[in-house]
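Project standup — Tuesday

K.O.: blocked on the structure for the chain from last sprint. Re-posting the sequence here as requested.
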Amino acid sequence: MACILGATLAPVGTELQPDFVSCILCGGRDWADAVANLLLYAPLGAALVWNGRIGFRAVGYAFLLSACIELTQTIIPGRDPSLGDVTFNTLGAASGQIAALLARRWLVPGPLSAARLSLAAAALGTGMLALTGALLAPSIPPTALSIWYAPALPEMPWYHARVLDTRLGGLALHPGLLPAQAGPLLRTGEPLRVTATAGPPVPALAPLIVFEDDGANQVYLVGPDRNDLVLRYQTRAATCGLDQPDIRLRDAFAAITAGDTVRLGIQRRAVEWCLSLNRLERCGLGF
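H.V.: unblocked you, prediction finished:
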């Protein structure tokens, strides 16, 4: 209970959500939110089983708790109350109940069940590794692409930098719609070289270079995050509404001050990435 209340009732911004969102799967990371909400309440469902509260009434307790929290979030800055959160919180509690009821069979199985469970666990682990690798593969769309320099995006800080020159492979790039050959060069991981005048430090990830598809979706982003140089490209996971990690060159901007000239380099070699900033370079980066 303490973990749930701490994770859901603390302010995370300064603005109030205008109203309660009635959709089940909402936004660009809808399935990531769904999985997170399900996992948040699963331990509560298991704890209710261990305290002798089993069945629809126990799941109803979790539903009431989630509904009260979501209604309270309407007056907490930065929170996004929605019907989807209540739905997946309730499903999470039900999943926790089922897992707790089956725990004895899993933890103290007979010889035949142990063999079957071991085989199932090996298959599940292998499948999860393969699925994760597939989801984290690049997914740059074949549509027309545009590039923007240090744009002011609503969800990110504005990086007050000035881009002087950008080249993708041997192709010079300019803000706006890109020529048709830029897309294949980006998908094959050709070197991206950027020369820019650095801006002041930023408190979070801020875009220096952004590639967008014809639907204004970010498919490739390069920029600083405090002292790190960050590469974020669209993966299959992102297209499915899941989260994804960034690729980082740690402390690349640690010695950079506003007004310095910086030269960035990004290149993909098979399944690994090489990132550089001025004299600092590191290869072998990836997931």
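K.O.: great, moving the ticket to review. DSSP finds seven helices and twelve strands in the chain. The CA atoms of residues 65 and 193 lie 52 Å apart.
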